[in-house]
C-alpha cells in the first residue's frame, strides 16, 4: 500500500500467527518509499523522507544520524507506532499495514530503555508476560528464557523484582523482554545507552550471537559509534529524514580510506651503524630542508614530529600505488624507513564526514564525486 495505513497500536498486540505466504527469498525487512511529515505549512517537518531499504535475515543494521535526523520516526513508522504518510513495510514478505498481526508476530522491539518493562514483576514474570501477549505459553518458552537469562548474566536475578535491579540489569531485562518470544526481527533503540562496561559487553555479545546463531535480524539505533562498528554488519546513516549512506560497515570505512600512513624515518647512515657518522646537530636534520619541501609538495605532508634520531610524519596518498614511489623517494633521500602503519578512518570519522562535521551542515554522499556511497534510492539529490 502507498497511502496512510491504519494505526497499529504496537507489536504487543500481534498474535503468534504466521503468514505462510512469505518465502525464504523475502528480505527479513523491506521498507519502500517510507515518508512521514509532522505538522503542516511553514511548521511542517519531513521527519522521514522516502526511505527505502531491504535487510537480509541474520543481519545487524545500525541506524545512525545526528539528533533529529529521523531515526526514531523511521523505526516507529516501521513498527506502526507512528502513522506513515506513504510507503510500504514488509516483514518477511508480509505487509505490516495489510496484515499487521502476522507481520508483527515476527517482531520484537526495545524502545526507550527499560521503561517498557514492569518494575514490580520479577525478571522471569516479565519475560513470561511478554511471551504471553505474543501468544506463547510460559512452559513453551521456558528453555528460551533460561538461555536468555544465562547469556545476559541474569540467571541469579530471575526471581528478583525488576525494581531491585541496577540500571544496567534493568536494560538487559528490557532486551530480554523484546526477545521473550521467538521473533525474527528485533528493533533496539539505543540498547547500550548508559550501561556500565560489563553490561554493555554482555549485551553486544548477545546481539551478535542472536544474529550469528539464530539468524535474527536486528535493527539498532545508537549514538555510540564503537558499538555500531563492533556489532553491526551494515550501517544506515540518516540526515534530515533521508538515508545518505547505506553500506556494509567495513565497505563504508574502506570507501573513505585515503591510504594514509604514519611513517617513521631515520638517516640511513645512523641505521647502518658501524663506522657511520650520525649527522651533526639536532633531530631536525633527520630530514633536510629539500626532503621536507619535496614531501610537502609531492605528498602533501603537513607536519613532522621529531624525536631522537627519528622523524615521523603522516602522509595521505589517495592511490595505494603511490606508496612505493614514496618509499623510493625516501630511500633516494638517504633515509631508512623504520616503521609504517596505516591510519584508517573509523566509523566515527566517516559519520562526521558524511554529516558535515557536527551534523549541522550535512554533506550528501551524492555531492562527493569520489565517495559513491550505495544509498538506497541513490537517485536523490
Ligand atoms: N511527534 C512529533 N511531532 C512533531 N515533530 C516531531 C515529532 N516527532 C519527531 N518530530 C520531529 O521530526 C524530526 C525527526 O525526529 P526523530 O525523533 O525521528 O529524530 P532522531 O534521529 O531519532 O533524533 P534523536 O537522535 O535526537 O533521538 C525532528 O525534527 C523532530 O523534532
UniProtKB/TrEMBL annotation:
Q: Composition bias, kind Basic and acidic residues: at what positions?
A: 7-21, 367-381
| Top-level taxonomic group | Archaea
Write out the entry's keywords from A to Z: ATP-binding, Nucleotide-binding, Transport
What SMART domains does the annotation carry?
AAA
Q: Where is this region: Disordered?
A: 1-27, 354-381
PROSITE patterns in alphabetical order: ABC_TRANSPORTER_2 (PS50893)
UniProt similarity note: Belongs to the ABC transporter superfamily.
Indicate what this protein is called per its UniProt record: ABC transporter ATP-binding protein
Amino acid at each position: 500500500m502507498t497511502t496512510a495505513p491504519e494505526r497499529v497500536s504496537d507489536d504487543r498486540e500481534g498474535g503468534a500467527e504466521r503468514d505462510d505466504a512469505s518465502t525464504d527469498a523475502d528480505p527479513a525487512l523491506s521498507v519502500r518509499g517510507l515518508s512521514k511529515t509532522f505538522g503542516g505549512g511553514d511548521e511542517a517537518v519531513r521527519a522521514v523522507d522516502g526511505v527505502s531499504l531491504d535487510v537480509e535475515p541474520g543481519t545487524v543494521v545500525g541506524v545512525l544520524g545526528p539528533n533529529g535526523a529521523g531515526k526514531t520516526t523511521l523505526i516507529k513508522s516501521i513498527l506502526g507506532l507512528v502513522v506513515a504518510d506513504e510507503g510500504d513495510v514488509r516483514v518477511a514478505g508480509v505487509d505490516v499495514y495489510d496484515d499487521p498481526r502476522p507481520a508483527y508476530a515476527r517482531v520484537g522491539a526495545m524502545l526507550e530503555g527499560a521503561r517498557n518493562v514492569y518494575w514490580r514483576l520479577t525478571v522471569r514474570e516479565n519475560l513470561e508476560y511478554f511471551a504471553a501477549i505474543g501468544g506463547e505459553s510460559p512452559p513453551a518458552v521456558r528453555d528460551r528464557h533460561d538461555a536468555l537469562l544465562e547469556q545476559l548474566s541474569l540467571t541469579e536475578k530471575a526471581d528478583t523484582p525488576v525494581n531491585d535491579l541496577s540500571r544496567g540489569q534493568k536494560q538487559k531485562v528490557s532486551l530480554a523482554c523484546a526477545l521473550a518470544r521467538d521473533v525474527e526481527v528485533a528493533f533496539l533503540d539505543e540498547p547500550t545507552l548508559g550501561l556500565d562496561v560489563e553490561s554493555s559487553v554482555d549485551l553486544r555479545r548477545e546481539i551478535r550471537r542472536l544474529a550469528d546463531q539464530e539468524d535474527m535480524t536486528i535493527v539498532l539505533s545508537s549514538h555510540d559509534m564503537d558499538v555500531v562498528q563492533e556489532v553491526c554488519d551494515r550501517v544506515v546513516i540518516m540526515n534530515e529524514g533521508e538515508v545518505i549512506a547505506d553500506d556494509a560497515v567495513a565497505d563504508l570505512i574502506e570507501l573513505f580510506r585515503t591510504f594514509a600512513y604514519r611513517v617513521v624515518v631515520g638517516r640511513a647512515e645512523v641505521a647502518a651503524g658501524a663506522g657511520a657518522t650520525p649527522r651533526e646537530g639536532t633531530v631536525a636534520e633527520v630530514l633536510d630542508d629539500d626532503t621536507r619541501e619535496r614531501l610537502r609538495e609531492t605528498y602533501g605532508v603537513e607536519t613532522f614530529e621529531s624525536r631522537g634520531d627519528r622523524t615521523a610524519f603522516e602522509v595521505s596518498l589517495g592511490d595505494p600505488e603511490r606508496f612505493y614511489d614514496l618509499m623510493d623517494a625516501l630511500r633516494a633521500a638517504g633515509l631508512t624507513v623504520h616503521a609504517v602503519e596505516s591510519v584508517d578512518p573509523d566509523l566515527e570519522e566517516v559519520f562526521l564526514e558524511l554529516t558535515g562535521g557536527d551534523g549541522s551542515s550535512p554533506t550528501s554522499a551524492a555531492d562527493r564525486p569520489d565517495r559513491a556511497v550505495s544509498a538506497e534510492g541513490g537517485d536523490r539529490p
